[in-house]
Specification:
The complex is a heterodimer of chains A (525) and B (466). Chain A has 525 residues and is of the alpha+beta class. Chain A folds into three domains: 65-284, Thrombin, subunit H; 305-409, PDZ domain (Pdz3 Domain), CATH 2.30.42; 414-524, Pdz3 Domain (Roll), CATH 2.30.42.10. Chain A is built from 13 helices and 31 strands. In chain A, strands 2, 18, 19, 20, 21, 22 and 23 form a seven-stranded antiparallel beta sheet that branches. In chain A, strands 25, 26, 27, 28, 29, 30 and 31 form a seven-stranded antiparallel beta sheet that branches. In chain A, strand 11 (196-202) and strand 12 (211-222) form a beta hairpin. In chain A, helix 3 (44-56) runs antiparallel to helix 6 and helix 6 runs parallel beside helix 9. Chain B folds into three domains: 30-252, Thrombin, subunit H, CATH 2.40.10; 256-353, Pdz3 Domain (Roll), CATH 2.30.42.10; 361-453, PDZ domain (Pdz3 Domain), CATH 2.30.42. Chain B has helices at 5-25, 30-46, 87-90, 126-131, 237-250, 290-294, 318-326, 376-381, 400-403, 423-433; strands at residues 50-61, 64-69, 72-76, 82-86, 93-99, 105-114, 119-123, 150-155, 163-174, 194-197, 209-212, 217-225, 232-236, 256-257, 260-263, 280-285, 301-305, 308-309, 333-340, 343-350, 352-353, 361-364, 369-373, 390-395, 411-415, 418-419, 438-444, 447-453. In chain B, strands 22, 23, 24, 25, 26, 27 and 28 form a seven-stranded antiparallel beta sheet that branches. In chain B, strands 1-3-4-7-6-5 form a six-stranded antiparallel beta barrel. The chains are: A alpha+beta (525), B alpha+beta (466). At the A-B interface, strand 1, helix 1, helix 7, strand 19 and strand 31 of A face strand 12, strand 16, strand 27 and strand 28 of B.
């Protein structure tokens, strides 16, 4: 039950309680050198094509040059736009109501470069019950991106990046050969009331993936935020659907008022209908996304993740203003924000607030957060056992010293943790990994197993166990790892006590949960 | 709220007609007539004590100091002019206006506040009490209440002053789960269960009295269940009376604190090999608190505290355990009887003062953010690394700190390499920095960061607040 103090301003505003707020990762300048995730084989062709494509973005794409002045007719637009649009199918795995959920969902995507960068709605990051229907639950794991075009082409894709503020995302098609039909953007555009756009989405598979044309227009200019307009016209457009001008250039995208709090907070005026987001507004996102894609491909050409070395620090870009203020030499630097206890960096003597300016004598050319990939890539390129020498600069640029760190094996992450299922208690647990410990701010020597999934009406679920909790004892049996967990439950199942006590740690709290197993039910099976 | 006058008129007519018919057919039974008489008596005796409170509170949102007006209720408890209300009504108020029973508006002064029980006391000049013929109401015995007993709620629901509603005590011992927080962010409700009533309680009723047929205040109306009908909650008079007395006397409530979170034992005495149903399970022990210093561990069972047996077999008994500890004189050395894995032992703990739940706020206007001083309770509530520094409460969109990527919740413990251990030190360093760029050292959980704030050159923006 939800109770609230009886303040007039409190209860009369249902929005404050009726909404679900997923745990959205904020865009803090936090970076972790956790082991990279495994990916598909490298696509070097795409990388080579990238510089060319940057240019291609700003020249007419598929549009016929002769028609450009006059503008396109609607059938011409239709013919040009249709092959750039795809239905994006993807899988989500998330925990909702104490249970692991897997859903297949859909959104629209538009190809924005010949090498297969695809712009999509940022809403895909949030749990969905079906196409466009939000569910409550943890932030999902996104897998299995497939693109279906109206002309029958199908491609696989991977996530490149998302922007929380813009609520937009970028995918990268990984199995395309040759140039793909794509849209071209322009920021040479002066919006005004009544400006007409052309827009297009695809019908779903059941309706033959037919492209659907819809005219839209600006019905209000919004002063704040800038470069955002209120739109009139079809509301079938999903977030991220392109807005074409009459000459076949994309001048913006639809940024429908997001359903999920936190998403699109920068571009969300208090409007109920769709809004348009100008290309000027997300140009930087596309540019950065392109460089992220390049990094991604580069990283995949490197040895697979198990071979990547582990340094064990968190860091941020020092930034030019701070560097100048502190008198640090020019050229870029990172600021160490945290050293993981027991990590190679800690053993080598690196400390929080250290300013690192070079690796093995080469300047760390990081001047802003978006440059960090170069540093991350440099570390990940090293194998365990390799020694990296960091140049640490003191304030005022007066002195430097060198710190040699021998990289260790990457610690296992939640994603790759071993899992065990207990059918009687309808409980899945996983081994306790360093990322879970750090995430819950626990001492790295903490032991136990982590509840990974639990059936709400099962014995474990009824007791109150929920994902993320760390089980440390079951009745009088200590649980330190998966084996002792299984042994403890085996013992309990043999003894069939009336009550089974779980001693649980979650963040800084300790809690006790009691299961009341119906042992007869078990023997009946 | 919308009321269509014409429709309201129709309803009134219908109600009057029906009542007339009923009365004509069956005369009101004697006991019903008695009830009516009692209600009228309560109303006549209590209505002069009821006030409508319009506080103006200062709040710090999005990195700026703002004023906010609201409406609540309160009741006069003595001839000196003391009025009891909720902390979430009048607490932290910079100015409190009060409308009396005779519709006169006067200014009141804030005497004391206690967020842990969500209570506050304000005062109007004593001469007004006699000049305006106001009669204080007295507290009754909330422990003696029975479920089903008639009660009336007096207050200003939806700012509609001088409203009475009627119902019964639906539950006299309602335990509301932990984690209740006030709009201002403090936790509340540790020390009492709640009186649940179906007397209609709406926003604006906060701080008004719940009165029995004897005309005694048995509770202070404070909360309502969201999206429910007639599920309201009042702070029991037993709690309100003691807190109000302390607020009148010394302006605050002093409590002892040991840093333990308890859990009820209902389901698992047998698992600890216990033969009798007593004790309270220690669920968490605050890092660095007195209990941790004494060596208590989660999983221990507290059997007695200072010689008083402790029992929390059910959740409803937990507030009593917290109250027992709070009532210990601050700094007392207390002997505990503790059960740890079937072995009973004796431990000694020294209580500390609970202190303020949250520190004062300050707006560093030129830097574009607000900060709050850190109290011992905040270290626990927010799981901070230590008490040193000030915590960032809000960052003005587009301001210098926003451009330097400062985030809410971060702790600033140094400015230009000078430690700022508390709010006063922060204010001093802020003043000393003037318009020059300032380097802030940040503690962000286990991380250390640097943020540079450069005053000036702020783009005009309304921060999306249109």
């Amino acid at each position: 039950m939800n109770t609230a103090p009886l303040h007039p301003t409190n209860r009369l505003s249902p929005l404050r309680t009726g909404t679900h707020e997923p745990a959205i990762a904020t865009d803090h300048p936090t970076n972790r050198l956790s082991p990279p995730r495994s990916g598909a084989p490298a696509r070097s062709a795409l990388r080579l094509a990238l510089p060319l494509l940057l240019v291609a973005l700003f020249v007419p794409g598929v549009a016929d040059a002769k028609k450009k002045r006059k503008g396109q007719t609607v059938p011409q637009f239709y013919e040009m736009a249709a092959p750039t649009l795809a239905t994006v199918e993807f899988n989500q795995e998330f925990v909702a109501g104490g249970q692991n959920q897997q859903t297949k969902s859909y959104t629209d995507g538009v190809v924005i470069s010949a090498d297969g960068l695809v712009l999509i709605s940022g809403n895909v990051r949030f749990p969905q019950r079906g196409p466009g229907r939000m569910a409550s639950g943890s932030l999902p794991e996104l897998t299995g991106f497939r693109l279906f075009f109206s002309d029958g082409r199908e491609h696989e894709a991977e996530v490149v990046t998302f922007d929380t503020d813009l609520n937009l995302g970028l995918l990268r098609i990984v199995d395309a050969e040759g140039p793909l039909p794509h849209v071209s953007f322009t920021d040479d555009f002066t919006p005004e009331i009544g400006t007409a756009f052309r827009s297009m989405t695809l019908y779903t598979k059941e309706y033959g993936r037919e492209p659907v044309y819809s005219p839209m227009s600006i019905n209000a200019m919004l002063e704040t935020p800038q470069d955002v307009w209120s739109l009139a016209g079809s509301t079938t457009n999903l977030v991220g659907a392109p807005l074409w001008n009459a000459r076949g250039k994309v001048v913006g995208v639809v940024a429908q008022v997001p359903m999920t709090p936190g998403a699109g907070r920068m571009v969300r005026p208090r409007l109920s209908g769709p809004v348009g987001l100008s290309y000027a507004r997300f140009q930087a996102f596309i540019t950065d996304g392109r460089s992220a894609a390049e990094q991604q491909i580069a990283a995949q050409e490197k040895p697979p993740e198990d071979d990547a070395g582990w340094l064990g620090i968190e860091f941020q870009a020092l930034g030019k203003p701070v560097a100048k203020h502190l008198g640090i030499s020019e050229g870029g630097a990172i600021l160490v924000t945290r050293v993981i206890p027991g990590s190679p960096a800690g053993d080598a003597g690196l400390a929080p607030l250290d300013i690192l300016v070079a690796i093995d004598g080469a300047r760390i050319a990081v001047n802003k957060e978006s440059d960090l990939n170069t540093f991350i890539g440099a570390v990940r390129a090293q194998k365990p056992g390799a020694t990296m020498t960091f140049t640490r600069e003191a304030r005022g640029g007066a002195s430097t010293d060198e710190v040699a760190v021998t990289l260790a094996n990457s610690p296992k992450t939640e994603l790759h943790a071993e899992r065990r299922v207990n059918d009687a208690f309808e409980l899945t647990v996983r081994e306790l990994t360093l990322d879970t410990l750090l995430g819950q701010r626990l001492d790295p020597t903490t032991t136990g197993v982590v509840v990974d999934g639990v059936t709400r009406a099962g014995w474990g679920g009824l007791a109150g166990l929920s994902p993320g909790m760390i089980i440390q004892r079951i009745n009088e049996h200590d649980v330190t790892d998966l084996d002792t967990f299984e042994a403890a439950l085996a013992k309990v199942t043999e003894e069939t006590p009336e009550k089974v006590l779980f001693f649980v740690r979650f963040r800084r709290d300790t809690r006790f949960f009691v299961a009341e197993p119906d042992w007869d039910e078990l023997s009946a099976e | 709220m919308t009321i269509t006058p014409s429709r309201l008129g129709v309803h009134l007519v219908a109600v009057v007609l029906l009542a007339g018919v009923a009365f004509a057919l069956t005369p009101l039974p004697t006991h019903a007539a008695d009830l009516q008489t009692s209600i009228l008596r309560v109303q006549r005796n209590a209505h002069t004590a009821l006030v409508n409170i319009q506080p103006v509170t200062e709040s710090y949102t999005r990195g700026e100091k703002r004023k906010r007006a609201s409406v609540g209720s309160g009741f006069l408890i003595d001839t000196q002019g003391h009025i009891v209300t909720n902390y979430h009504v009048a607490g932290r108020a910079s100015r409190v206006m009060v409308t009396l029973h005779n519709k006169e508006r006067v200014e009141a002064e804030l005497i004391g506040e206690d967020p842990l029980t969500d209570l506050a006391v304000i005062k109007i000049p004593a001469e007004l009490v006699s000049d305006y013929d106001m009669k204080p109401v007295r507290f009754g015995d909330s422990d003696a209440l029975e479920v089903g007993e008639f009660v009336m709620a007096l207050g200003s629901p939806l700012a509609l002053a001088r409203t009475m509603t009627f119902g019964v005590v639906s539950n006299k011992d309602r335990y509301l789960p932990e984690g209740m927080t006030l709009p201002t962010g403090e936790r509340t409700g540790d020390f009492n269960t709640w009186i649940q009533t179906d007397a209609a309680i709406n926003p604006g009723n906060s701080g008004g009295p719940l009165i029995n047929l004897a005309g005694e205040v048995v509770g202070v109306n404070a909360r309502g269940a969201m999206f429910a009908d007639n599920i309201g909650f009042a702070i029991p008079a037993a709690t309100a009376k003691a807190v109000a007395a302390s607020l009148v006397k010394i302006g605050e409530v002093k409590r002892s604190y040991v840093g333990i979170q308890f859990q009820s034992l209902q389901d698992w005495e047998q698992l600890f090999g216990m033969t009798e149903a007593r004790g309270a399970l220690i669920a968490s022990v605050e890092r660095g608190g007195p209990a941790a210093a004494a060596g208590l561990l989660p999983g221990d069972v507290l059997l007695s505290y200072g010689g008083t047996p402790v029992t929390a077999r059910f959740d409803e008994e937990l507030p009593g355990v917290y109250q027992l500890i709070a009532d210990t004189p601050i700094g007392t050395e207390v002997t505990l009887e503790v059960l740890r894995r079937e072995n009973t032992s004796t431990m000694t703990i020294t209580t500390v003062e609970t202190g303020k739940l949250s520190g004062d706020e300050f707006e560093a206007e030129a830097w574009g953010f607000t900060v709050r001083g850190i109290t011992d309770q905040m270290v626990f509530d927010r799981d901070l690394m230590s008490k040193d520094g000030v915590v960032v409460e809000g960052v003005r969109t587009g301001g210098p700190a926003d451009r330097g990527n400062l985030s809410r919740g971060w702790v600033i413990d140094q400015i230009n390499d000078t430690p700022v251990n508390d709010l006063a030190a922060f204010e001093a360093q802020y003043a000393a920095a003037g318009n020059a760029p300032a380097l802030l050292r940040i503690v962000d959980q286990e991380r250390l960061r640097l943020v540079l704030v450069t005053p000036g050159d702020e783009p005009t923006t309304d921060g999306g607040s249109r």
